[in-house]
């Protein structure tokens, strides 16, 4: 049936109609009233009508109105339905005139429906409820911003939603906005309760003083630290703050050569000189409660470091001294200026120039062309040891410096290079701070590094800091910075020829101290240190204009390890700061075990791994194990200074640490480093191609072929990481079989040696 039809459809009996006729007639009526927003569901019986409405509402507090469009259901119109059937069964049938007549009746019925006012009332009620709920968030609620958000929500891509759909969308948008506001209120409450929102006020002694801030900036080898130490020695008392124990030790010596008795304080060492008015310490050990005559804060550019920058912020903000001298690179200027402005203190920047020129060597350096006085830089222990092996094979004597070595061993290795016992130094960027070395040329083996989070390009500050170690004044006329063959010199050229780029975010890093931790725990009503630190890391200081929260992930990992111990929160907080490698699960288990014993009142014995290293020199495997053992003893000493009763074997700890350091020094001084299987500890021949021994490899193959499901390890049930000579028959090895990293390619540790070794049927690296 069409609108033009005025007689029954072909074949129909006049005076009769069926369901198809009814639906066609309803659609004809709907076409008449569609311009008024009226629609019909003709397939339902009886037919159900709906109406599109436009409703203008005011956003409370926003001085803005929104035009809402939505559809409401009116339901059936029984009178229209009855009249329609009458027209369909009449002699003349149903056509356009009848559709227009019923359309007027439908329009009048729909527009006068009480459902319209009820629908608008529901919308108004929702906005009233929204205003009431938002009022509880005070200034945290931003009605203008929410109005903008609602403007985007109600568009629906040009469609007109049903009323309930619109209300659901409004509620969802409001819930998201209120959650953000609630989180902001929660953050503000936590910041206020903890005191982190007013961090500077926690240093009352420093805030009560009139302090003079002076920033000595310049490249390495410019004399800025020497000048600052001269100024410090003129004061009646003072402190020198360094990033490393090595630098703190040098600071102590520098002050004593200037006639000033000086104590040394580090995390695991105390050398207190009676009557000394000066103290040299690592920066985390700063004493902000004592009044000093002056203070030198070294390597101030570290204030921008996400992991340790909080310690420099604490020192700059908290040291109570009338004169604060900061030394470092110009990269620190934006950070220190922002901090000085927040403290309301004047900052004087004094620039130093390098005493000897530093030049870029454009020609790449093939490894055979490394010469006496060079420092070759890599960024992992593996690469350092690979370069050491390659350079020893070319007739050099080599000293090595990398982060896993203790300060004592680093100093011994630096001394070997300084006195000429070693003609080449291979090091990580650990030489970038604190070591005065007679380096003629710095050669970067790569311009990329893994920073604990990702593999990335070296930034300009890092290149300047490392490259600046070349050309020590008084030892060389100039310094040169180059790269190994296969690397690009462009990053080095840019770093050494362009000024520092200001940081995108010059806010200083801060970290929650014990008072902050306790206050957050009370606010959260929790005794979990990990939860407190996680909340602080995720929620606090998001909108602060001066400070931002340091990366707390390592501290959270340590907190998780000690939270099970029956110890007060303040004790667990100290334990969580213990200098362990949180990436090593063995270290976390060790710390957790110490904490459990401490909670039970049981004294912890000093780690005894040193007893396994009574021989003169060791293998590559033993060297790595000895380095880990030193770290464990260092952590024990750190705790023993703070909890004497719980860690009573400090003297034995220091004795074992000294023994291990001597063992490591002797091993590194050897012309060649003996190799051992990392699984069983058996010594390997110099030309053995693979990392593991033949027996371990064969045992693993046998186990795989036999379909065994035993985990890799010793068959007698003991640890697979056994000591040399402690290898039972048939010991298994882990699921790897890598070639020894003797080949250089583009860098150390890439590719197998060209010399043979092992069973004749082995075909390169195998991963069973």
From TrEMBL:
The signal peptide here is none
Q: Where is this region: Disordered?
A: 703-768
Kindly give the InterPro entries that the UniProt entry links to this protein: DEXQc_SUV3, Helicase_C-like, P-loop_NTPase, RNA-DNA_Helicase, SUV3_C
Annotated GO molecular function terms are: ATP binding; helicase activity; hydrolase activity
Highest rank taxon of the organism: Bacteria
Task: Show the stretches that span the lipid bilayer.
Answer: none
**Pfam families hit by this protein:** DEXQc_Suv3, Helicase_C, SUV3_C
PROSITE patterns, alphabetically? HELICASE_CTER (PS51194)
Which residue stretches does the UniProt record annotate as biased composition, category Gly residues? 748-759
- List each copy of the Helicase C-terminal domain by range: 345-541
Compositional bias (Basic residues) spans?
Answer: 735-747
Arranged from A to Z, the UniProt key words for this protein are: ATP-binding, Helicase, Hydrolase, Nucleotide-binding
**Which PANTHER family does this entry report, sorted A to Z?**
ATP-DEPENDENT RNA AND DNA HELICASE, ATP-DEPENDENT RNA HELICASE SUPV3L1, MITOCHONDRIAL-RELATED
> Could you tell me what this protein is called?
Helicase
Look up and give the organism this protein is from.
Azospirillum cavernae
């Amino acid at each position: 049936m069409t609108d033009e039809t005025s007689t029954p459809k072909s074949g129909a009996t006049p005076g009769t109609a069926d369901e198809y006729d009814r639906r066609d007639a309803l659609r004809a009526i709907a076409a008449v009233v569609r311009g008024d927003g009226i629609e019909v569901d003709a397939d339902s019986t009886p037919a159900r009508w709906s109406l599109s409405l436009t409703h203008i509402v005011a956003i409370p507090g926003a001085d803005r109105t929104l035009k809402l469009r939505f559809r409401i259901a009116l339901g059936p119109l029984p009178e229209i339905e009855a009249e329609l059937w009458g027209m369909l069964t009449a002699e003349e049938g149903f056509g356009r005139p009848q559709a227009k007549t019923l359309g007027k009746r439908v329009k009048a019925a729909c527009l006068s429906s009480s459902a319209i006012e009820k629908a608008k009332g529901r919308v108004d009620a929702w906005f009233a409820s929204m205003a009431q709920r938002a009022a509880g968030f005070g200034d945290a609620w931003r009605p203008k911003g929410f109005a903008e958000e609602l403007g985007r929500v109600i568009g629906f891509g040009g469609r007109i939603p049903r009323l309930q759909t619109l209300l659901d969308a409004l509620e969802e948008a409001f819930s998201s906005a209120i959650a953000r506001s609630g989180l902001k209120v929660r953050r503000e409450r936590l910041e206020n309760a903890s005191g982190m929102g007013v961090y500077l006020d926690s240093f009352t002694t420093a805030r009560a003083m009139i302090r003079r801030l002076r920033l000595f900036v310049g490249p390495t080898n410019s004399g800025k630290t020497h000048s600052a130490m001269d100024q410090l020695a003129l004061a009646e008392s003072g402190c020198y703050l360094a990033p490393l124990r090595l630098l703190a030790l040098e600071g102590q010596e520098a002050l004593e050569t200037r006639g000033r008795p000086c104590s040394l304080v580090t995390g695991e060492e105390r050398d207190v000189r009676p009557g000394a008015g000066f103290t040299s310490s690592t920066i985390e050990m700063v004493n902000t409660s004592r009044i000093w005559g002056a203070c030198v804060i070294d390597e101030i550019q570290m204030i921008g470091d996400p992991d340790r920058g909080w310690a420099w912020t604490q020192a700059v903000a908290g040291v109570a001294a009338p004169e604060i001298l900061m030394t470092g690179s110009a990269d620190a200027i934006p950070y220190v200026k922002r901090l000085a402005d927040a403290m309301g203190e004047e900052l004087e920047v004094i620039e130093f120039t390098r005493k000897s020129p530093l030049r870029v060597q454009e020609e790449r350096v093939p490894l055979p062309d490394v010469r006496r006085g060079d420092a070759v830089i890599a960024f992992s222990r593996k690469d350092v040891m690979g370069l050491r092996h390659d350079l020893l094979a070319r007739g050099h004597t080599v000293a090595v410096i990398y982060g896993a070595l203790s300060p004592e061993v680093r100093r011994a290795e630096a001394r070997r290079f300084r006195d000429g016992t070693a003609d080449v130094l291979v090091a990580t960027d650990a030489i970038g701070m604190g070591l005065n070395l007679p380096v003629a040329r710095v050669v970067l083996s790569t311009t990329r590094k893994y920073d604990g989070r990702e593999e990335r390009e070296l930034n300009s500050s890092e290149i300047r800091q490392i490259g600046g170690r070349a050309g020590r004044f008084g030892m060389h006329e100039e310094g040169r910075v180059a790269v190994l063959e296969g690397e690009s010199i462009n990053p080095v050229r840019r770093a050494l020829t362009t000024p520092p780029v200001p940081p995108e975010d010059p806010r200083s890093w801060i970290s929650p101290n014990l008072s902050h931790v306790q206050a957050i725990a009370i606010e959260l009503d929790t005794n979990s240190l990990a939860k407190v630190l996680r909340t602080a890391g995720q929620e606090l200081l998001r909108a602060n204009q001066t400070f931002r929260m340091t990366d707390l992930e390592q501290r959270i990992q340590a907190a998780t390890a000690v939270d099970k111990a029956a110890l007060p929160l303040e004790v667990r907080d100290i334990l969580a700061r213990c200098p362990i490698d949180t990436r090593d699960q063995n270290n976390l288990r060790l710390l957790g075990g110490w904490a459990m014993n401490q909670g039970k009142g049981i004294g912890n014995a000093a780690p005894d791994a040193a007893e396994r290293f009574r021989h003169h020199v060791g293998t590559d495997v033993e060297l790595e194990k000895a380095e880990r053992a030193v770290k464990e003893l260092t952590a024990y000493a750190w705790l023993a200074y703070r909890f004497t009763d719980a860690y009573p074997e400090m003297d034995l700890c220091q004795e074992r640490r000294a023994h291990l350091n001597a063992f490591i020094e002797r091993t590194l001084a050897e012309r060649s480093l003996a190799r051992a299987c990392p699984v069983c500890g058996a010594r390997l021949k110099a030309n053995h191609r693979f990392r593991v021994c033949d027996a371990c490899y064969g045992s693993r193959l046998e186990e795989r072929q036999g379909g065994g499901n035993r985990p890799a390890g010793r068959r007698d049930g003991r640890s697979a990481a056994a000591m040399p000579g402690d290898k039972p028959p048939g010991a298994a090895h882990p699921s790897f079989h890598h070639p020894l990293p003797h080949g250089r390619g583009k860098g150390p540790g890439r590719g197998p040696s060209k010399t043979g070794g092992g069973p004749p049927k082995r075909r390169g690296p195998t991963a069973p």
